[in-house]
Specification:
The complex is a heterodimer of chains A (399) and B (387). With 399 residues, chain A is an alpha+beta fold. Chain A has 10 helices and 17 strands. Helix content of chain B is 39%, strand content 19%. Chain B is globular, with a radius of gyration of 20 Å.
Chain lengths: 399, 387
């Protein structure tokens, strides 16, 4: 049994995101600040608030599916399996000695639910949809297990847009509790008509690009994506001579218990989650060199997140902040998993990726938002993720 | 942060099922409504649904319309569990109370409705107020808001064993000192889309009624429960959930291993177990594997109880509903006799049944859950007076 949380280490990573498949593409584009959102091609956007989003294109699942039929799972599950395979490859991890001590945890908002859209019509739900009857939300984590032979702890966690971070927390706990030696943790989601419809009607979308923390920000853009991190017990990683990117140093998960769509005005759950992450990581606020913001670019989120950061770190002491959603859009349950990979790469390369599309900082967001690549000055970083329903999950990675 | 060493108490049980609300109603149903044969289930009661008027009786009429059915039922079950546990907000600080719920299909209806509208070119008719209800996490989040549970709030999906995973996680959170108490359980309802899909699935020869339920259990440390004078219904001794996508002998071997490890994890041996509440879902191969594992581990004299022939398959809520029956049985020190006889020998020849000796004190029971998605779960529960 692992006594300390920081004995859980990251040894492999991968990202499937708009504009990039694989780690190298992803990080190069992130540092360059490339906009990966654009006009949606898979969807008829008539009647919607926006025609823009972040689609993963030129993705061929066949290369990643060795056992299952990729056509029988959702696009999100295809992304999840691809991310897991690339992650294992990045970690140069051999097949586990004991497959019951190797597990999977994936966070998702919609999971395989967009599959049912194939059966939808104006008349309603088709009987042909019985194939989806068994397609419970656990499809991504089950499919990864089937593909890579990890038959230990297995879960799909559905804590809205905090799901990717939640999955990392759950997976790290599985290792810490002695239930597993190695875990694939991450998130996966795809754009769906339902989410386009809902967020259009909420008037939550931008109509061009995402502008986190900008005075004139108007909203988010929804995206496809997946990311996976290979977490290992430090001794397990050392035994196989694995490269260790960093450790999972601490995390916190607290609810707002306030409102289904609006964050608590003072960011109650977010503040507690960040404070708990700092406490369990045994680091001081001044030890953090970067915060990967939830940073959706919606009027509500960015102000509350800024307020919460100031509450935790002090008004003029908030570490440099950046939002990857300015580049990729919001990949829903995958977002914080993708951002977790960015955090690990920030530590690994000592470079903070920029927030793009920021012209005029909102005076209510008086934080240091990184708009050009910047050197990381300290050896610990914080990844924030918040979701509808008051779900909050914050993770600290440290060198 | 203090580690909770005293064990985990189940102090509140709230449930809504097609029989009604509360533990008394479920127990009465188990006592009086035994089935003569599985064909009764198939022909008379393909779908079993919860009375939609129940939440209003528990929560009042205000704001109910903004909640999905599953959220209404989940919040109702949570409120019932807190009432059952004599819980008040002063029992702990807000951030020391958490929520962990399992679900397989929450939000299915809202998501499907929005999809159909947008695909049909009627995006303007999508109701924005229903957005959060389309998420799997809506029931747990409504519980969090309604009960001011500011601690961990998670929604978990591990097939129909999701509620077991929620209970396992809740137990770990309390043991680690991160929470004083947690509302755990499972919820799933039959949307019209799920019934359509389910009917097609049933037509393929899967012989079980589809049902719905919402179950919430309040877990807390035994010391915490005792200090506030709470009634302890039972103890949660151990829980495990695994993904076992195998069949036949391999599955029964794995389930037997899970049972052994879970019982050992509770500090017990198979001889300490006085009864097993099985999932018995009617999937022939998985049922046989379950029966084989139980027979091998416990022998032929172990009392067995199966409630699904009576209540139907209620997906991610199933495990929590079976666990509820086990908790009530432990607290009353008796097996529901009709449920025992309902798995008659001609229907389920794989299980050896025997009647529970009511003069014998029931110390521990095991609850199993197998499902068609490949997940398997095990709970070990103990009698409260065994503390």
């Amino acid at each position: 049994v692992v006594d300390r949380l920081d004995d859980v280490v990251v040894t492999g990573m991968s990202v499937i995101a708009p504009g990039s498949i694989g780690l190298e593409d992803f990080w190069r584009n992130a540092i360059l600040g490339k906009i990966a959102t654009g006009p949606l091609e898979r969807f008829d956007t008539s009647g919607l608030q926006t025609a823009m989003g972040g689609e993963v294109r030129q993705f061929d699942p066949i290369a990643y599916f060795h056992r299952l039929d990729s056509r029988k799972v959702s696009l999100a599950t295809q992304f999840a399996v691809a991310a897991a395979r690339l992650c294992i490859r990045d970690a140069e991890a051999p097949a586990p000695k004991d497959q019951y001590r190797a597990g999977v945890c994936i966070g998702s908002v919609s999971s395989c639910r967009p599959n049912i859209e194939d059966f939808c019509s104006q008349e309603g739900f088709s009987e042909d949809a019985h194939g989806t009857f068994l397609a419970a939300p656990c499809q991504p984590s089950r499919s990864i297990a089937d593909e890579i032979g990890f038959y230990g702890p297995n879960l799909t966690i559905t804590t809205a847009c905090a799901a990717g971070n939640s999955a990392i927390c759950w997976a790290a706990d599985a290792i810490r509790a002695g239930r597993a030696d190695i875990m694939v943790a991450g998130g996966a989601d795809q754009i769906s008509y339902a989410m386009l419809g809902f967020f259009s009607r909420l008037r939550a979308f931008s109509t061009d690009v995402v502008r986190p923390f900008d005075r004139d920000r108007t909203g988010l853009l929804i995206s496809d994506g997946a990311a996976a991190l290979l977490l290992e017990r430090r001794e397990h990683a050392a035994e196989r001579g694995a490269r260790i990117y960093c450790k999972v140093a601490g995390y916190g998960n607290f609810a707002d218990a306030y409102h289904m769509t609006a964050p608590h005005p003072e960011g109650r759950g977010a503040v507690r989650s960040m404070q708990e992450a700092l406490r369990t990581a045994e680091v001081r606020p001044s030890d953090l060199g970067f915060v990967s913001a939830h940073g959706t670019g919606t009027p509500g989120n960015d102000v509350i997140e800024s307020r919460a950061l100031e509450s935790v770190f002090g008004k003029d002491s908030v570490p440099p902040v950046s939002s990857l959603k300015s580049q990729l859009g919001h990949a829903q349950g995958a977002a914080s998993a993708i951002e977790a990979v960015a955090c690990v790469l920030t530590l690994h390369t000592c470079t903070i990726h920029p927030t793009i599309n920021l012209t005029t900082l909102d005076p209510e967001c008086s934080i240091d938002v990184v708009t050009k690549p910047r050197e990381l000055q300290k050896r610990a970083v914080l990844n924030n993720a918040f979701g509808f329903g008051g779900n909050n999950a914050c993770v600290i990675f440290a060198a | 942060v203090s580690i909770e060493p005293s064990g985990i108490a189940i102090t509140g049980l709230g449930l809504l099922s097609p029989f009604g609300m509360g533990r008394v109603v479920l127990w009465e149903a188990l006592l009086t409504m035994g089935l003569s044969s599985p064909s009764d289930v198939e022909t008379n009661c393909l779908f079993k649904v919860i009375d939609d008027t129940l939440p209003e009786a528990i929560l009042g009429p205000k704001n109910l319309r903004s909640l999905s059915r599953e959220s209404r039922f989940a919040v109702s079950a949570a409120v019932l569990a807190l009432q059952d546990a004599h819980w008040t907000e002063s029992c702990c600080r807000g951030h020391e109370l958490g929520v962990a719920m399992g679900t397989a299909y929450s939000g299915h209806h809202e998501f499907s409705q929005a999809s159909a509208l947008v695909i049909g070119g009627k995006a303007q008719f999508v109701n924005p107020a229903r957005t959060p209800e389309a998420g799997y996490n809506a029931p747990a989040s409504h519980i969090s808001i309604r009960t001011n549970a500011q601690g961990l709030n998670v929604t978990l999906a591990s097939g129909y064993s999701s509620a077991f995973e929620a209970m396992r996680l809740g137990m770990e959170e309390i043991k680690a000192g991160r929470l004083k108490a947690i509302l755990t359980g499972g919820v799933d309802v039959l949307s019209k889309e799920l019934m359509t899909a389910g009917a097609a699935y049933l037509a393929t020869g899967n012989n079980f009624a589809l049902s719905e339920a919402s179950v919430c259990l309040l877990l807390e440390g035994v010391h915490h429960a005792r200090n506030r004078g709470a009634p302890i219904a039972a103890l949660l001794k151990a829980a495990d959930v695994r993904y076992s996508p195998v069949e036949g002998k391999k599955l029964s071997d794995q389930l037997e291993r899970m049972l052994r490890e879970c019982i050992a994890g509770a500090g017990l041996t198979p001889e300490d177990v006085d009864g097993v509440f099985v999932s018995s879902i009617g999937h022939g191969e998985r049922h046989k594997a379950e029966a084989a594992a139980i027979n091998r581990l416990f022998g032929s004299r172990m009392p067995i109880c199966a409630i699904k022939p009576l209540v139907g398959e209620c997906f991610a809520a199933s495990g929590a509903l079976i666990a509820s029956a086990a908790i009530i049985a432990l607290s009353k020190n008796m097996f529901p006799p009709k449920a025992v006889t309902s798995i008659s020998s001609e229907w389920r020849p794989d299980l050896t049944l025997c009647n529970f000796d009511s003069n014998h004190f029931m110390r521990h029971v095991v609850v199993t859950q197998l499902d068609p998605t490949g997940f398997a779960g095990v709970l070990v529960l103990g009698a409260a007076n065994g503390v």
